[in-house]
Amino acid sequence: MGLAVWLMGGGAAADEFRGYPCRKDCSGHKAGYEWAIKKEIAVREDCGGKSQSFREGCYAWVEERSASAQERKPQKQRVSVNE
What we know:
By secondary structure, the protein is mainly α. Helices cover 48% and strands 5% of the residues. Strand 1 and strand 2 form a beta hairpin. The longest helix is centred in the last third of the chain and has 21 residues. The N terminus is likely disordered.
């Protein structure tokens, strides 16, 4: 049962949302995150909202999107030239 509770957001895992501390139930964070996905927010400056938790949810999306984009970037190969 412990695993089921953790997967459903119960226990210690519910105290934070993607690295941001929740004040109550993380609903504001979840709403901001979902809003950012829907609006395709790409930069933190575009995160709006009246509550800190909503903005933090938006920030979480932007940070994940940015990290994901960095992982997909092709790595530049170094070429050494022998003289």
